[in-house]
Amino acid sequence: MSTLLIIFALSIYLIFYFTYGKFLQKRIVGETEIEVPSKRMNDGVDYIPAHRLVLFGHHFASIAGAGPIVGPVLALAWGWLPAILWIWIGNVLIGAVHDYLSLMVSVRYDGKSIQYVAKDLLGKNAGISFLWFVLFLVILVIGAFAAIIADTFVSVPGSSTAYILQIIAALILGVLLYRSKLPFWLSSLIGIILLAFSIYGGFLWPIHLTYHTWIIILFFYIIIASAIPVNILLQPRDYLNSYLLYFGMLVGIVAALMSLKSFDIPAFTSFSANVIGGKSTPYWPAIPLIIACGALSGFHSMVASGTSSKQLASEGDGLFIGYGSMLTEGFLSTIVIVSIGAFGFTALGSHSTALANAHLFGQNYISQFVGNLGGAVAAFSKSYATMVSSMLHIGYNFMVIIASMWVAAFALTTLDTTNRIARYIVVEISEPLQKESITLYKFFTNRWIASIIPAFFGILLAWTKKYTVLWPAFSGANQLLASIALITVSVWIYKKLNRKYLYYALIPGVFLWITVTGALIWYTILIVPGYVKSNPLQGFLVGIIMVIMLILNFVLLFSMRSSFKKEEE
Amino acid sequence: MNFDKIRRFLQLLEEVQKNKATDIIEFELKETENLFALITLGEMVGYANPPVSITLSLIPYMEREVILMTNRAVDSNDKLSDIASIMEVE
């Protein structure tokens, strides 16, 4: 079953790439006489044509993080079939379409960002909503990821040591790369050896600290890491992380292909399994709040319209970069489903009575299965390690540390980079203040204040340890971004391309809008009050964020309506 | 001939592996270049210029900076996606 599923996923992705993807490319986007921005505006720095493989690597490394791993782990509460169906269908019909079209709209707009295009096509409100959604996304992602990381560090103590040693390895690599005259290959080799050593170090010296101690450490880490120059820590660490990503994926694919094992967890439990905050959660509309990045993610529209669109060497490469890398991410999520589906119970060790049948599994999966394995990341790491160690005969403990470090390292990169992005948004959002009160403007745009605000709110949210409540809120913000991007590209198709093909972007966009809006209303009415009761401060904060996002979301819908109307007139 | 192909392929793989990390450095380099342009051509936006003898001797090196600066002036309010595609969020 496990091998079949991997082969089936590969076939689906290939078939859709060559049929639906090519259809989008030929019929909707079409060809244009004008050269791509990377050539027409080539300045050797910002606009520069890149080899398609190089650009693919960059694009994929930017979109693949901890998100496509954590989401599917939680979604397995509904059973593996509903989870994998959303990953596949959402991916090929919505997520990859969203990524590809936002890349192409940016290419046709001289490499401008999707936020700029949204402002141009939908009006100023859309641009402002965009900024606010990103700010909320950033705060919620800090909350959700900090909670997930602290949880992982508590349940797999070796991963925390490995991670700290990796930071030291990255610092040393930074010095070797920029301060010494060692050849590049030698510094890289030393970096990789140090990385291997840090994993071994994690194996030898696990650090045992409490959840809240880790949260406090993470708070200071975020502030410091986001303030120091990128070439000291972030950049060499990112470089080391990409080895972890490719190694992890490659080993995972080989092991999953060899596994030939039936699934232990039920294919379907119920459409109302207990997922979010321990409450019965309807599959529709809540599924996009759980599986975000593996199926579709609004953040990708920013990546696609950032540097990728300025470096695309020909419009023909767009499908490979935009559509292709999203499919690869969906494939990563498929590996997550396979490793837990087939090896999760082996990793858990005992078949507890609370998980005895499909109904009970749906009810108790998050608390008994994920909880007993030590949280979402640990659940994946342990199942993945079981799969790899039984197939490829690599030590189990070693693989657990590699896998948890793989996911934790990505989640941690997210923490300090989100703060850099947040700093930029806080400054942008404060701009109108300049006219009202220059003192307030100066206060908010101060480098440290703009860093501390998002980090503080994020960490405050993480304090409650309830990542299953925070995760859907983060995904909600992310999916709303995706719906702005899809609505923007549908207006683009309507105004600038062929009206006949409007529905290929509008239907997924509106479907997503309705689903996510419905899910967020459900979340605000049913989940937030319980959260407020147990943690008033955090509950209110999430509640306020949700209400603002919902209002902005309706404003956006009206902008789209008036934009279509204007065109008719 | 075949060795050449293999070597080119390996070089490409190395570039794929390095590209993301190099871009982060490039981003910071760009910021530094912006500062350089601001120091030398700052008069356009109201900054006092360094002594004329210095700016004059720098002019031959500034051709590219001027092109970049005009490009970036157009994009100056649209940097969020640029940052997002270098950093990772999820």
From TrEMBL, chain A:
Entry's localization field: Cell membrane
Record Pfam families: CstA
Membrane topology reported for the UniProt record: Multi-pass membrane protein
Transmembrane residue ranges: 6-24, 60-80, 86-107, 128-149, 161-178, 185-205, 211-234, 243-263, 283-307, 319-345, 394-415, 444-463, 469-494, 501-525, 537-558
Stretches assigned to the CstA N-terminal domain: 2-515
One GO-annotated biological process of the protein: cellular response to starvation
Superkingdom field: Bacteria
GO cellular component terms listed in the entry, alphabetical order: plasma membrane
Keyword terms: Cell membrane, Membrane, Transmembrane, Transmembrane helix
InterPro entries named among the record's database cross-references: CstA (IPR051605), CstA_N (IPR003706)
Main localization of the protein described in the UniProt heading: membrane
Similarity field: Belongs to the peptide transporter carbon starvation (CstA) (TC 2.A.114) family.
Protein name: Carbon starvation protein A
UniProtKB/TrEMBL annotation, chain B:
UniProt-recorded name of the protein: Uncharacterized protein
Organism: candidate division TA06 bacterium
